[in-house]
Amino acid sequence: MAGRIEARLAELGIALPTPAAPIANYVPFSVSGKLVVVSGQIPLREGKIAFTGKVGTAVSMEDGVAAAKLCFVNLLAQLKAAAGDLDRVARVLRLGGFIAAGPDFTQHAVVMNGASDLAVEVFGDAGRHARTTIGVPSLPGDAAVEVEGIFELA
């Protein structure tokens, strides 16, 4: 039987993927006490990067937002692996977003709202979080967006 959060994901039409394996020398998440720190997730879909290039040029704003949302879905897959049950998540504490874009791009926060808005849609008020959004010249595999997170367990 699915829990409350997985039922909410189903309502939103979201199925969690198999958590992605690390592509370098790191772990996908670390747990310390009630905190889960999830490594940066790129917009992988079925093992392939779904959005590549720089937002604002090769990647539209709409696709950038979709990429950030997909990154959050991948964060949730890792979080479920760490916690065992997403109903154990008491709060989304912080999200960090990295947006691949050119030097004249200034709408990083709008792109990152794809992840932030989904956090609130999934967890309600417990999904409201602190956030940092940074523009970068490139990301692994030419991903358009990468999102990391810190979560508190009940």
From TrEMBL:
Residues 6-143 form the Endoribonuclease L-PSP/chorismate mutase-like domain. InterPro entries: Endoribo_LPSP/chorism_mut-like (IPR013813), RutC-like_sf (IPR035959). Transmembrane segments: none annotated. It comes from Belnapia arida. It comes from the Bacteria. This is RidA family protein.
